C-alpha cells in the first residue's frame, strides 16, 4: 500500500503518521528523512541537495524528486509500501511523482487529507507559552499550569510566547500552506484518490476514520 498523508500544520499529521506506520507496517517517508538519508549516503543527488542547503537555498524540484525516486526504489519500500509525508508540496511535484511511481511499476493508492478548520488551528498553534525562568512549556487549552499564571516547575510568574507561536504569524503560515495545498487537493480529487478526514475529532477517532479508508485500499 502506497499513500500520501496531507494536512495543515497542527492538524495532527505527525501523530496519525506514527499510528499508520505502526499499524500497517509501511515505511513512513518524510521530506526531512529523505534528505538526511541521501546526504548521509553521499549519493550524487544527496551531495547536490547539500550544496543548495549549505547556501541557504531551496532544493530545486528536480533534485527533490530524484531523491524521492531513490528512496522509494529501495528494498524496504518495495516490500512494505510507503507513506509520503511532506511530498509532494506543489502540482509540479505531484505530476513528477506520478511519473516516478509509473516508472517503478507501482502507484499511489490513496491520499489522506486531515482537515481541520484553520481558525481552530490558529487556536491550537498559538496557545503555547513558555516559562522564562526554567523553560517549561504550556498550552492555554491543552496543558495549562495547575495554578493559573504560576509555573508548575519553578513557581515563576514570568511567561513569554515565541514569535513563531503568535496568532498573526500562525495565521500567515496557515494561509501559505492553504495556498499550496489547494491545487494538490483538487489534483488528487480529480484522480478519485482523495479521502478527507475530520481532524477535529479525538486522536483515536481520527485514526479509526483513517483505518476505514485504508482498509478499502
TrEMBL record:
Residues the record lists as binding ATP: 10-15, 128, 137-138, 201
Family classification: Belongs to the adenylate kinase family.
Domain comment in the entry: Consists of three domains, a large central CORE domain and two small peripheral domains, NMPbind and LID, which undergo movements during catalysis. The LID domain closes over the site of phosphoryl transfer upon ATP binding. Assembling and dissambling the active center during each catalytic cycle provides an effective means to prevent ATP hydrolysis. Some bacteria have evolved a zinc-coordinating structure that stabilizes the LID domain.
Recorded GO CC terms: cytoplasm
Its job: Catalyzes the reversible transfer of the terminal phosphate group between ATP and AMP. Plays an important role in cellular energy homeostasis and in adenine nucleotide metabolism.
Pathway(s) the chain acts in: Purine metabolism; AMP biosynthesis via salvage pathway; AMP from ADP: step 1/1
Record keyword ATP-binding present: yes
Domain of life, per lineage: Bacteria
Protein name, UniProt field: Adenylate kinase
EC primary class: transferase
Keywords: ATP-binding, Cytoplasm, Kinase, Metal-binding, Nucleotide biosynthesis, Nucleotide-binding, Transferase, Zinc
Domain Adenylate kinase active site lid: 128-164
NMP, as annotated region: 30-59
Amino acid at each position: 500500500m502506497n499513500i500520501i498523508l496531507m494536512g495543515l500544520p497542527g492538524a495532527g499529521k505527525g501523530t496519525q503518521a506514527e499510528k499508520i506506520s505502526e499499524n500497517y507496517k509501511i515505511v513512513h517517508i518524510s521530506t526531512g528523512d529523505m534528505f538526511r538519508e541521501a546526504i548521509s549516503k553521499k549519493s550524487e543527488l544527496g551531495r547536490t541537495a547539500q550544496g543548495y542547503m549549505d547556501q541557504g537555498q531551496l532544493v530545486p524540484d528536480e533534485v527533490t524528486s530524484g531523491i524521492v525516486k531513490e528512496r522509494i526504489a529501495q528494498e524496504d519500500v518495495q516490500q512494505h509500501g510507503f507513506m509520503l509525508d511532506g511530498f509532494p508540496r506543489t502540482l509540479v511535484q505531484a505530476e513528477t511523482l506520478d511519473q516516478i511511481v509509473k516508472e517503478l511499476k507501482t502507484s499511489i493508492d490513496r491520499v489522506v487529507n486531515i482537515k481541520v478548520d484553520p481558525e481552530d488551528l490558529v487556536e491550537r498553534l498559538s496557545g503555547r507559552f513558555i516559562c522564562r525562568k526554567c523553560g517549561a512549556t504550556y498550552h492555554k487549552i491543552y496543558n495549562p499550569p495547575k495554578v493559573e499564571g504560576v509555573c508548575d516547575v519553578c513557581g515563576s510568574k514570568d511567561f513569554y510566547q515565541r514569535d513563531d507561536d503568535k496568532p498573526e504569524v500562525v495565521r500567515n503560515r496557515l494561509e501559505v500552506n492553504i495556498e499550496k495545498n489547494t491545487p494538490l487537493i483538487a489534483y488528487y480529487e480529480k484522480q478519485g484518490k482523495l479521502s478527507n478526514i475530520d481532524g477535529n475529532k479525538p486522536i483515536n477517532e481520527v485514526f479509526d476514520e483513517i483505518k476505514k479508508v485504508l482498509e478499502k485500499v
